Amino acid sequence: MFFGIVINYMDRVNISHAILQIKAEFQLTSLQQGMILSFAEKY
Question: Under a CB-based contact definition with an 8 Å cutoff, are residues 12 and 41 in contact?
């Protein structure tokens, strides 16, 4: 269970740092960006 928590945390941190590049590459709106971040947080 500990490793699952660590992997989940690392995934959320990486997506949070990469969201600006993801937004620029796929021309996402702020709403779409928020949906990605909220999904990553619950995942």
Answer: yes
- How does pLDDT run across 1-43, given as a tens digit for each residue? 999 889 888 888 888 899 999 999 999 999 999 998 888 766 6
| Residue 43 and residue 11 in contact, taking contact as beta carbons nearer than 8 Å | yes
| Contact residues for 20 (Cβ-Cβ < 8 A; gap 6+) | none
**Contact of 13 with 21, CB cutoff 8 Å:** no
Tokens standing for 21? 């590049």
In contact, 11 and 40? CB cutoff 8 Å: yes
| 37 touches 17 (CB < 8 A) | no
